[in-house]
Amino acid sequence: xxTVLITGANRGIGLELARQYxxxxxxxxxxxxxxxxxxxxxxxxxxxxxKALDVAKPASIAKLAVALKGRSIDVLLNNAxxxxxxxxxxxxxxxxxxxxxxxxxxxxxxxxxxFWPLVKKSKQKKIVAIxxxxxxxxxxxxxxxxxxxxSKAALNMVMKNLGNDLxxxxxxxxxxxxGWVKTDMGGKSxxxxxxxxxxxxxxxxxxxxxxxxxxxxxxxxxxxxx
Length: 226
Ligand SMILES: NC(=O)c1ccc[n+]([C@@H]2O[C@H](COP(=O)([O-])OP(=O)(O)OC[C@H]3O[C@@H](n4cnc5c(N)ncnc54)[C@H](OP(=O)(O)O)[C@@H]3O)[C@@H](O)[C@H]2O)c1
Known about the structure:
Blueprint: E1 3-6, H1 12-23, E2 27-32, H2 39-42, E3 48-52, H3 58-67, E4 75-78, H4 94-120, E5 126-130, H5 146-167, E6 172-177, H6 194-207, E7 215-218
Parallel strand pairs: 1-2, 1-4, 2-3, 4-5, 5-6, 6-7
Bound molecules: NADP nicotinamide-adenine-dinucleotide phosphate.
NADP nicotinamide-adenine-dinucleotide phosphate is lined by residues 7-8, 10-14, 32-34, 53-56, 79-82, 103, 130, 132, 177-178, 180-181, 183-186, 190.
């Protein structure tokens, strides 16, 4: 069966992605910062391996790369993300802004740099990231959330650029928005369940290939304008 590596798999959309891939028979390398506390993840049925990973720490990424040496990864799924404070204009803070960029932008890039050889060895050869409609520049940002919006726009560029750089190696990429989803991040008013969002994301991932690489998609398969 194919293998998927998922970051931030202990709760929210990442946990549901792990559940659905495992249910479909995939081998799931489910990564989270604190495996000892990841009870819901460890309770999943199927072939789920729980691994420690903090995408904000290059040493943690390097350690996982050593642990997975020799393996092959069909889908590298960069899901981990943080919102940061939803503050408006005039409230930017360096440490907080860079912290959001570190997790949401540099994390997925370093993951791709560390794991692309394992993706290249696989049959499906895909690297994807969970982005946000809030990262769409032409989508008419309505102010605020500077760090988060900027991070997802930058993540979109990372995924597009990776598509260019890794396309010659047969690797396809995509930036996929999950929609507005009921999670700790999305809150209770969100219209989408993790079940429907994750099911859509998995379908979109299945649809990408070398010919359909480097795009920005919604969870329902629609293309989103950059
Ligand atoms: N929910 C929405 O409406 C929505 C909308 C658009 C985009 N998204 C995106 O969808 C993705 C998942 O969001 P979610 O709603 O499931 O959020 P969530 O419920 O807040 O879960 C976030 C996940 O990311 C992990 N994470 C945070 N920082 C990390 C780090 N440094 N290293 C490794 N893992 C880290 C968290 O782990 P800990 O438990 O250790 O903190 C958690 O597993 C994110 O990229 C988010 O930006 C969500």
